[in-house]
Amino acid sequence: MGSRVMEWREVDGVEWVEAKLPGATAVFTTCSAGSMKDDHWTLAEAVGISAERIVSGRQVHGAELAFHDAPTAETPAVDGHVMTRPGPIGLVYTADCLPVAVAGPGGVAMLHCGWRGLAAEIVARGAEAVGATHAAIGPGIGPCCYEVGDEVLAEFAGLGDGIADGRMLDLTQVARRLLLQAGVETIEAEPICTRCEPELFFSHRRDGTPYRQAGLAWLDGSGA
Known about the structure:
Layout: E1 6-11, E2 14-21, E3 24-29, H1 41-47, E4 54-55, E5 65-68, E6 80-83, E7 89-94, E8 98-104, E9 107-113, H2 115-119, H3 122-130, E10 134-137, H4 150-155, E11 164-165, E12 168-169, H5 171-181, E13 186-189, H6 204-207, E14 213-219
Parallel strand pairs: 4-7, 5-6, 10-13
Antiparallel strand pairs: 1-2, 2-3, 3-14, 6-9, 7-14, 8-9, 8-10, 11-12
């Protein structure tokens, strides 16, 4: 939907997907940058941002957001970061869940979207926080690999047909439909499956390790 905003980039062997949104940039990392829980510096150097400006949180698979107008070392229990001014770079960790960036006149937000967060309406909250008009959905587990139970399917039954094939849930399609419900008109996704691509991505379902890639977003301007 809309023009293509997501492109693959590579610098010095570090690969990532980059999305240009109105007044903002989002980056979705691969395992080539190492586990983001261990090291932000390798990725930051490749992308050309300051690791000291990255803000993150203790993710709890919920829908709480932290609002940032400046970088901070605090790590609140949140699953989304809203940047209202240039400077702070919001980061969420993923290893099958979706990293979702939304942007609008109120800023940019980076959201950690597993099924629990999506069911808890993190997309609607993030979109409302920035008046989102555009979104970029980063890589996550695909419908080829994401088998879920009836209780998970029931959470999204109201979204209509096409979000699941039997017990195989299409998490990207769920996020897309929730974004549309939130009034976001321009949405692009990188549909590659993290579980299917061990050379590119960490996957909790595949490996059960603590390693994580990340989604990052910031407002363009001074301080990136």
